[in-house]
Amino acid sequence: DTEYQHPINLDCRTLTGRQATLLRHLSFIILLRPYVSTQKPRTMADTSTMPTPTKAKAGGLPFLSHSHFMQKLKEENRFEKNRFTVAKRLEKFQSTLSNEENADSQINLESTLGYVPYHEDLLPRWNAFADSQKDNKSITSITVHNSCIPPSPFFKDKIYPIFQKNQNITSLELQGVNRSLIFGVISVLKMKKCCKLVSLDLSWNKTRFTDIARYQSLSEAIGNHPSLAYVNFSHNALGETVDHLSLVLKGSDKLESLILDSNDIDSDGVDLIMKFLKSNKTLTTLSLSDNDFGNKGVKAFASTFEENDDMALRELNLSKNGLTLATKVESKVLSDMLMHIDLSHNLIGVQGLKNVVAYLAGNPPLACMNLAGNILRNNVAALLMGALKRNTNLAHLNLGHNSFTKASVPCIVDALKNNSTLLTLDLTDNKIKPKSGGRKELVKNALFESNSLQSIIDSNHSCQVYLSDNNWGNKDTHEVEIRKMNAFGNKGKTIRYKLVLAMFTLKTIPFNPLAFQHISLELMPRLLEFVQQEMGHKGFGKDVWNASRKGKGVKCLTRVYEVVTGWSMLPSLFERGPDKVKKKKKKQATKKRKRDDGKECIPGKRGK
Fold this sequence. Notes:
The protein is α/β, with parallel strands linked by helices. The relative contact order is 0.03. Helix 14 links the parallel strand 12 (368-370) and strand 13. It has helices spanning 17-30, 32-35, 66-75, 86-97, 123-133, 154-165, 179-190, 212-223, 242-250, 267-279, 294-307, 328-331, 350-361, 381-390, 409-417, 439-447, 453-457, 474-477, 479-486, 491-505, 524-530, 556-565, and strands spanning 8-9, 63-64, 106-110, 141-145, 171-175, 199-201, 230-232, 257-259, 285-287, 315-317, 340-342, 368-370, 396-398, 424-426, 464-466, 593-594, 600-601.
């Protein structure tokens, strides 16, 4: 490898951000070949063979090798930490191609380190991978992410035979792949080679589709598979040309789920989608996130929903589209036929939220609503929580990434105490802080009011409340443990765990044996089991309690003794009734024996 170890003459102290990026890519190219050689690849940890800096000539700059160049960038804070080089990606991807698990029913060529470009030295690995799959007839799933196959005729000679021998493929995921692979797969789908295909993911291929003929082929490929239910075509710039979007919709008339996120779809594209929805009777899920068609586009949704209340659509994602829902016309997008709606990261202000509140107060069949990232403040908390108290259908509500503070906590507590159908409430990334910011008060007053046995019973035992992404402050609030307890779905089990946490672990409720003195005999075994439990002791609560916290359990026997001795029914267990028990005398069987003269001798009588 010595011929590729050419030093780079540069001064890292004078680099701008863009210059550093360009030079970093240049260094990757220089060191690319040693890492993807067909021989045993050298690992990044093998720095012993890397060239060391050499002194420059008089008046010159020192020569820096690749490793020292990267180290210099780190020192200058011009290189992001934990960043892998392209050479490292290729090295990891070689092991993916050689993975023996790919010989099973699933092929997974996913690069989790980023985009992996094709290099000619990878061809032997690709050939070996294709040869290992040529006799495999049980493939049902193929996943390729951020990877490039060799150019033509590799697909025709190596990949196409795999599709010919596997007619039961149900899932195809091709994200960020090169033209050779995506066009080859489309040609295969046009010939109905995957008759049982259910899911197709072609997202993140924006630069792969350039002409209308490709979209025509894609439309035919989707339409040729009646079993196909899910298509993801996000990040492909469909909205740039209405004709392209029209062809994709034409082939999607039998789908159940269609994902069109980040496709630059404007209001004209929305009108086209509405025409598609009016005639479609199968589509239940539609995602149009991050298209920024604004209120003009949402009005088309509202009018379509008002005129066609018998559509099959149940889940709608309109996040990141600049919606305000400030007028009644726009708010009609909140249709009673929907079960899930995502309105996150829009511009819903006070007036828009009032329309949302009026919709929720009507108790629609909606089960899930996402209002995250709409800069909602304390002035709307009372309205929203008031509607939540009257709603009995909503099960999941996301209010994360807003601006609620400690002032909103009393409203949230009141709503949680008066709502037993809400299963999850997401309040992450708000301004509700652990100690003085209201988070501790929210957990204590709504979910774990540990002042007495009755206060715990009266708390909310069904809603999982998320207050922090990283569980910061959990030591004071125990919100993570309480959330896991509320996820049991069993109210009795949840109350029991909370009582153990309050009485025997945190000891916020003093243990009083006299409180159990009148318990019935049938419940006494359960009580004796209960007083011996403590979070972390002998595996109890391992599903909710941190494994590093081990309960001591030193007072378990003492609690059992105090409960038993203080039990009012204990003396009655040892009392006899008024009648004495008569003992029956056992009759002794008479044994006959013979005398010396041969005559029988009766016991008790002395013979002459």
